[in-house]
Amino acid sequence: MGTPAARREAIAQFEQGYEMSERRACCLIGADRSSVRCRHRRPDDRDLRKVLRGAAGTRRRFGCRRLHVILRRDGHVLNRKRTRRLYREEGLSGRRRRRRRRRRSRKRAIGTRAPLVTEAMANARWPIDFVQDQFADGRRFRILNVIGDVTKESPSAVADASISGQRVARELTALIARRGKPGVIVSDNGTEFTSNAILERAGKMQMRWHYIAPGKPMQNGNCEAFNGPRRRWRSCTTTCCPSTAPWTCR
């Protein structure tokens, strides 16, 4: 006999079919009575499965690791092995592959579309986005722009050759320490904004983060309107300095 469940089933058949005692049946099969009498005490995961399915339906691009961060951020106590087991049992491992096949036939709306309502006050909404450019010698750099949607200013602009998700989390933490926490942060679905570092930092600081629909940059139109003039202004200059202080135009 292989698994304990198979041993329990065989012992039950011996007891019912041959009117054999449990002790005798265990001796014939070679099973321990303590393992046969042991009953699994796994907690009920129905509520957790429901939350996991809801998070996977809202964040369709997120895999098991990022969904685990979201569950931990919402207050659920579980390790990664339990999240992976529930993730596989719910059949969520192949959902992104099926979504690609559906998109070839016709486009489907991802969830509900609702306007993002904010108050007319400072730090109500911070749209953030990246701008890329290169120097005259061909070296590329990126600028992380943080825009004040209501005040029409740029409280932060970080330039570097490479900006990762951890760097974005550190810069936002430093900016919040200076300017205060915003009501909501709006960004696209780039890997820097959907990384585990951003999810964990947003959960610890209780920041509200809104992701626009994939392929819809017009939903973050204020940030695009800010990046456009800055991009054209830099293209007209003859030299480019790594520091973003001379580029602050608002």
UniProtKB/TrEMBL annotation:
<feature type="region of interest" description="Disordered">
    <location>
        <begin position="91"/>
        <end position="110"/>
    </location>
</feature>
<feature type="domain" description="Integrase catalytic">
    <location>
        <begin position="111"/>
        <end position="228"/>
    </location>
</feature>
<dbReference type="Pfam" id="PF00665">
    <property type="entry name" value="rve"/>
</dbReference>
<protein>
    <submittedName>
        <fullName>Putative transposase</fullName>
    </submittedName>
</protein>
<feature type="compositionally biased region" description="Basic residues">
    <location>
        <begin position="94"/>
        <end position="110"/>
    </location>
</feature>
<dbReference type="InterPro" id="IPR036397">
    <property type="entry name" value="RNaseH_sf"/>
</dbReference>
<dbReference type="InterPro" id="IPR012337">
    <property type="entry name" value="RNaseH-like_sf"/>
</dbReference>
<dbReference type="InterPro" id="IPR001584">
    <property type="entry name" value="Integrase_cat-core"/>
</dbReference>
<dbReference type="GO" id="GO:0003676">
    <property type="term" value="F:nucleic acid binding"/>
</dbReference>
<dbReference type="Pfam" id="PF13276">
    <property type="entry name" value="HTH_21"/>
</dbReference>
<dbReference type="GO" id="GO:0015074">
    <property type="term" value="P:DNA integration"/>
</dbReference>
<dbReference type="InterPro" id="IPR025948">
    <property type="entry name" value="HTH-like_dom"/>
</dbReference>
